[in-house]
Design a protein that fits this description.
Elements lengths: L1 E5 L6 H12 L2 E4 H11 L2 H11 L6 H13 L7 E4 L5 H13 L6 E6 L2 H9 L1 E4 L5 E3 L19 E2 L6 H15 L3 H5 L4 E5 L4 H12 L2
Parallel strand pairs: 1-3, 1-4, 2-3, 4-8
Antiparallel strand pairs: 5-6, 5-7
Helix pairs in contact: 2-3, 4-5, 6-7
Bound molecules: BIS(adenosine)-5'-pentaphosphate.
BIS(adenosine)-5'-pentaphosphate binds next to helix 1, helix 2, helix 3, helix 6 and strand 6.
Function: Catalyzes the reversible transfer of the terminal phosphate group between ATP and AMP. Plays an important role in cellular energy homeostasis and in adenine nucleotide metabolism.
GO molecular function: AMP kinase activity
Keywords: ATP-binding, Cytoplasm, Kinase, Metal-binding, Nucleotide biosynthesis, Nucleotide-binding, Transferase, Zinc
Length: 215
């Protein structure tokens, strides 16, 4: 099964993708995570992407579609993919169809996380991850069981994303409205879109997604 999780910054795409990876053995293909890894490694792609990401704008379609094609090629052919943060433009949506066709895959669902943007700023500026294992936390919604200690690996070091400040978040949301939301009709015409209330708590959002995906 191949699915897209679509929604603005902070909608919960990464949170739900993590869960699907653990519970269904699917592979999360997050262009944001892959770009951040390229920035950290100082690759040519990372060097091109860094300033654009820090400003909250979109990296070029060619770069991200190339990354997705390479990531699919590195996966077993029978493993399902969760596209998290991709596609984000009409050109990327068309590229994804070509990329999937060329690999004998098809898209099964596009899950739109419907959210109240005003509340997302709090979600984003409050989130942080373990610097060691990447487990995600939030100042209000998801704290470690023991303060200052990662539940998963026991590390005491945490980090925040440089683009998770309010000003950049507002730019990222404007990019979503201008460039990503308009691709929904492309998938609605293919009868692939299911809407989920992304403002419900994390478990309820997960249950709603499971109901769409089935067993
Ligand atoms: P990317 O990394 O994709 O960031 P994003 O889309 O802005 O999404 P986020 O990761 O911020 O949010 P999310 O929906 O995953 O929310 P999360 O689950 O973490 O992209 C970053 C940048 O990379 C872009 O700005 C761009 O420059 C570039 N880029 C990436 N892909 C690109 C592409 N295809 N084309 C061009 N450029 C690209 O949840 C947020 C917080 O809320 C967490 O703390 C979580 O615990 C909490 N939370 C989640 N769900 C709930 C809930 N239901 N209730 C309460 N709290 C919740």
């Amino acid at each position: 099964m191949n699915i897209i999780l679509l929604g603005p910054p902070g909608a919960g795409k990464g949170t739900q993708a993590d869960r699907l990876v653990k519970e269904r053995g699917m592979k999360q293909l997050s262009t944001g995570d892959m770009l951040r890894a390229a920035v950290k490694a100082g690759t040519p792609t990372g060097l091109k992407a860094k300033a654009v990401m820090d400003a909250g704008q979109l990296v070029s379609d060619e770069i991200v579609s190339g990354i997705i094609g390479d990531a699919l090629d590195a996966m077993p052919a029978d493993q399902g993919a969760i596209f998290d943060g991709y596609p984000r433009t009409q050109a990327q949506a068309v590229s994804l169809d070509e990329i999937l066709d060329a690999r004998g895959r098809k898209l099964d669902h596009v899950i739109e996380l419907v959210v109240d943007e005003d509340k997302l700023v709090e979600r984003i500026v409050g989130r942080y991850t373990c610097a060691n294992c990447g487990a995600g936390y939030h100042d209000t919604f998801k704290q470690p069981k023991v303060a200052g200690t990662c539940d998963v690996c026991g590390s005491h070091e945490f980090k925040r994303r440089p683009d998770d400040n309010e000003e950049t978040v507002r730019t990222r949301m404007a990019e979503y409205r201008a460039k990503t939301q308009p691709i929904l009709p492309y998938y609605e015409a293919k009868d692939l879109v299911a809407k989920v209330d992304g403002m419900a708590d994390i478990d309820h959002v997960g249950a709603a997604i499971d109901a769409i995906l089935g067993e």
